[in-house]
Amino acid sequence: MKVAIVTESFLPRVNGVTNSVCRTAEHLAAHGHEAIIISPAPGPAEYAGFPVRLVPGIALPMYPQFVLGLPTPKVEEYLREFAPDVVHLASPIVLGASGVAAARRLRIPTVAIFQTDVAAFARRHGFRGADQVIWRWLRRIHAQADRTLVPSTATMEQLARYGVPRLALWRRGVDLERFHPRHRSESLRRRLAPGGEVIVGYVGRLAPDKRVHLLEHLVDIPGVRLVVAGDGPAEPKLRRLLPTVEFLGFQSGRALSETMASLDVFVHTGADETFCQAVQEALAAGVPVVAPASGGPLDLVRHGSNGFLYAPDSPRSLRLCVERLVRNPRLRAELAARTRPSVQARTWEAVCDELLGHYQDVIGVPPGRLAA
């Protein structure tokens, strides 16, 4: 199979879209398929043995770490040269709009991945009143795709309300080796909580849409040490707001594995998550989760089983959930025992196999009959 991936975000930028594209490309390479990746510059020349075709990009003024690919005829040129069986549109917004239009002109089937709630992102970054305009634009893009894959049941219901057709569920995978309880580090725990405090942490981007400032409602809980791993445009403001919180900066590899597994409670504060990979990674690492009762976490967190869900706009609800776990070690241990089993079947191998099935469906070839 030949797959062209047109993505709004890719390396060196690290986020949920990039992660999904990387895992998809690795899966395609491992199973003998061909692919190209079309993404905004700057970026690598290749990934997983596949060429990366770079197009002009522009950084968002309020979020310079996020680069949008600009519309360009180069997309159609690259697709024509490669002649793919299917075009994979990763979180299409601007570059993805060029991709789906070019694919239609070339009569190439398309699978679009809805991954970012752009309307909510814009609202949290100060662009209020743009929801309807953004949703009309997104519906226009996705209406041209042969299939739109969504990461959670809440997101599927949301897109259906806005009239996006041909929806199917495609959840994200998790690296069960990188995120595992065995990475828990007692030396790290002693450094972060020398007094034996309960370590409560957030891991993820530090941006307005993640609402990390809500951690201020947890700083005075007795016996708690708050830690934050990640970076982003909101970091300077958060450091001033939360002077007693340990900021670990951006982490990857072994450091990230150890930090996640060494938490006692993982707290997520964003209320606009279409999936929330960080929640799934915390569960894989054996850490009970406290997350908003909205969006993607509704599919991941089983209230009272592997974590707690709190009312998204209630700091008091957030605090009560965290306090309950902090004050009850036995309950914390019971929930921790049920975290990893709740996501153990969601390997990237299994999830990417599902994706290949969606490719086959839109191409029109019965599953199992399409040769690599």
Automatic annotation (TrEMBL):
Q: Where in the numbering of this chain does the Glycosyl transferase family domain appear?
A: 190-339
Keyword line: Glycosyltransferase, Transferase
SUPFAM superfamilies, sorted:
UDP-Glycosyltransferase/glycogen phosphorylase
Classify the source by domain of life.
Bacteria
Q: Name one GO biological process term.
A: carbohydrate derivative biosynthetic process
Protein species of origin: Carbonactinospora thermoautotrophica
The keyword Transferase appears for this protein: yes
* Keyword Transferase (UniProt): yes
Domain Glycosyltransferase subfamily 4-like N-terminal stretches: 14-178
GO MF annotation, one: hexosyltransferase activity
Pfam annotation, one family = Glycos_transf_1
Name of the protein this chain belongs to: Glycosyl transferase group 1
